[in-house]
Amino acid sequence: MIDKQEFNNIREELENIDNNREEIIQKSREILRISKLIIYSLHRDDIEKVDSLILEAKEKINGLSKENFDSNINKAAVQEYVEALCYNEFIKNGKIPTRKELNVDTEDYLCGLCDLIGELERKAVNDIINNNLNKAIEIRELVDNLYGEFIMFNFRNGELRRKFDSIKWNLRRIDEAILTIKK
Q: 41: which residues sit within 8 A by CB, 6+ positions away?
């Protein structure tokens, strides 16, 4: 009446899917953790630690599957990775790497850049606190330029649209912090 082997095959297939899902979740959590450590270390000028963390993050991101079972944690991990590596490159060399240099897709790249702007706001405020107004102004110019590029897109509703909308508020807070010091 029923093909028992078919059900055995289905059970095996579902177990494999669940195992792959769990592996992706675990790897994504590690990438998120490492990326946050990169950002945290950069905010504290612990540059020596950053290079080894970046190597570790790159190794893990290369092994991350793009499959999206019922979780988008791998997308969150890639976006955090983009944010961390862009922040590192800005701090060290004053530039933002391309999506090709990071080997990520467009949406994750743009979402990561939106998240980066929050870290840049934090950096600008810290620079103002530490009497480094010129650096804060440089960050403000970068955020303004990024905002100018982002407004040229026509984003639909969704995560990227929501993240994009936060850019203008970050820019406004940077402006307010700089203006407070200049008065």
A: 47, 49, 50, 53
- Calculate mean pLDDT across residues 125-137: 93
pTM reported for the whole predicted model: 0.88
Q: Which segment, 2-11, 54-63, 109-118, is predicted with the most confidence on average?
A: 109-118
pLDDT of 120 strictly over 80? yes
Count of domains for the chain: 2
Continuous H helices in the chain: 4-43, 47-62, 73-93, 99-102, 106-129, 133-150, 159-182
Q: Which domain holds residue 52?
A: 1-80
Domain annotation covers residue 85: no
